[in-house]
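Re: Re: ligand-bound prediction request (bumping)

Still looking for help on this. To restate: I need the protein modeled with adenosine monophosphate bound, output as structure tokens. Inputs repeated here so nobody has to scroll up.
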Amino acid sequence: MFEMQVERSPQAIAVVCENTQLTYQQLNQQANQLAHHLCTLGVGPEVLVGICLERSLEMIVGLLGILKAGGAYVPLDPAYPSERLAFILEDTQTPILLTQEKFVKNLPPHQAQVVCLDLDWQENIQNSQKNPVNETTADNLIYVIYTSGSTGQPKGVMIPHRGICNQLHWKQTTFGLTNADKVLLTISFSFDPSVWQIFWPLCFGGQLFIARPGGHQDTAYLVKVIIEQQITVLALVPSILRVLLEEKGIENCRFIRHITCGGEALPGELIERFFAQLNLNNVLHNCYGPTEASIDTTFWTCQRGTNYDIAPIGRPITNAEIHILDENLQPMPVGESGELYIGGIGLARGYFNRPELTKEKFIVDPFSSERGARLYKTGDLARYLSDGNIEFLGRIDHQVKIRGFRIELGEIEAVLRQHPSVKEAVVISREEVQGDKRLIAYLTLNLEQTVKVEQLRRLIQQKLPIYMMPSAFVILKALPMTPNGKIDRRSLPEPAQTRQQAEETFVPPNDEIELKLASIWEKVLGIKPIGIKDNFFDLGGNSLLSIRLFAQVQKAFKKDMPLAILYQNPTIEQLAIIIRQLEFSPSLSSLVPIKVNGSKPPLFLCQGFSLYQSLVSYLDSEQPVYALISEDGQGMPIRFNGIEELASHYINEIRTLQPEGPYLLGGHSFGGIIAFEMAQQLSSQGQQIALLALFDSYVPSTIKKASVSKSLSYNLNQLLKIGPAYLLRYAIERLSEKYGNIALKNKFIRIKKLQYLVSRAAYFKIVKEYATKYIPQPYLGRITLLMASDRRIQDEPKLGWTKLAGGGLEIHEIPGDHISIFQEPSIRLIAKKLELSIDDRLS
Ligand code: AMP
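Reply:
Sorry for the wait, this slipped through. Here it is.
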């Protein structure tokens, strides 16, 4: 289906991820190259291929490559604990594992042959770009997705192509995606809604937009992306829809055409809120279905004013059947509740390596005369309403949904029981605030044993995904029992609203910022007291609570901060550092954290933010990164008396964070010159510089004006290489350089849209002034120069640094021009070279 779409619209954009994109033709060619490579490694129908990648263009190329080679993919989310990844790899024994170099070292021991998409890419380029011959049939597997298992281990659901073809066919014939549609991929590929989010647009000519990891729970980010990218199709779980509807700017999203809401019960009151905020008819659909039946099985299009407490799950999709049966497999009359069974062509083949469980859950279909017809026993309670719709009533067993994540409580209980002190463990989900379910663990201990909550949290963190972490642990003398000897889950006490960490780890707030933060945390988490070193997520903070917390933090400190900051800085202490830095603006706002966590010394990068921000995701996860910026709150440059003064100001800034060397410094373009001057000053103060990295920086005095003909041919060349985006870049640079002064003197400065141009103009002006005055002195240390291969001026071979690098000049040529070296794929090379240099110098 994808290849047919490539024929229809080869030049249309197929997939976009941050600043990078691929057309249908490019995506197809890259996937083909990979597929040919995989074929030579023996991939074909029924061969399972593990894929451990984060959300990126490579992930899409990887998935298509596996399918084109005829294989079935097994998603391995790099964010999962290594024990869970180890279990999946062990269970499936995948012969091949597709990944990226940066994940290889964190993978558990396994038997698979590793194919690194970034390293082995060259090999792929040699391969044919033609569609490989595919012998897969509808009965062959497309993927094996692991879902929570009640006995303590996850189970692999085997889905054949048939079910997904049917799913996409139903979606397309019912909701008709067009080539004007943009679909947002929000969910990790280890959950099955990702399958339609990826393949629906790719098979029917829409555009796939990949949200950043964690973005699906950051509603401010979602609104921003929806508006900026004009997203028309997305999926949300009800608890996130609730928060999204309260988000600033949501009323500007009325161009959305389709929202799949599902994964858990959708309250009727939330539907009314949706209509009140967005007023869109036939857009919100309540979709129901388990992983075992290929994504969605029934759906209901939400209507206003229907008075349902809980939205119906509607009727079956094309080629699906629903039966509501009693214990003897007899159909229940309308209005009476029974277990929901699913039949039809969407059914999974079964559970991987689990024939007994497969037999128990996939039973012979007593209503069908077709040979081999089966029904899947969902464990969901439901009933038919008199209008023909189906109503979801809850679960028969101990499976729960927390923010759409499917969790077998038994799996958490089994892990807790592994602790030598724990005798019994019961986990339940409680909903004290509407739409906010939390997991609570109750334990009894072996005689004379004790256990620290921290140890239990660590145990869970090692073995289970983070969404399975209980919010509270309650130790009881005995579990309450019913008269017939079963655990009485209803009589389990409410957890005390106190902090459950060991007392010795409690560190009280030290100043007003920390105090203010602590009181917000206590209010949001409902726990008291909270120490400044406690981790928000360990204390039961979840994505929903983090959104609430951040809204309050932003209000209290009157600062706009991206939610991602909380994920990188999950303690009061870390967050306070960032707020303190923001507090001192504009004079002390120069040190801007991009990534705070990590065991390595921080890398300080001068004069920029967005280029460095994109670099961070490619660097070692242990590498903290800070940007140094000299701008006021409006983005206008702050004037210093030359490069020396600016460098000394930056040094004061970084010393508040890292008082002593060895320092890691770097900068792009003019930022490199400042980093150079900082290195000079720091060395003369006796400090050690472990790294001075210059990204395509010229020594100012060597900059020569290129001749008109050279300029013209360079620009034409870049235009051909980069495409129309280069024109815009070129125009902005030129305009702000040439006409910036006029703009600066005039009132244009007040026009918001011209703000960027004006700030660039002012920046160029200052840079020119600084550069003409600056006479660099030879530096005794080593310089690492990462220079762009496409250079406007060819005269100065090493950009003028040879004479200045007394301790040696290490040169790496990076494919691309001054700006595109910070884009895919070159940015990977930059990150790799940096990492190698840092490791080398610090060792
Ligand atoms: P999963 O395999 O993660 O898709 O989870 C499937 C389970 O989620 C179902 O068996 C239901 O218990 C629950 N579920 C999915 N969609 C809905 C819905 N729209 N309303 C209520 N429960 C749902």
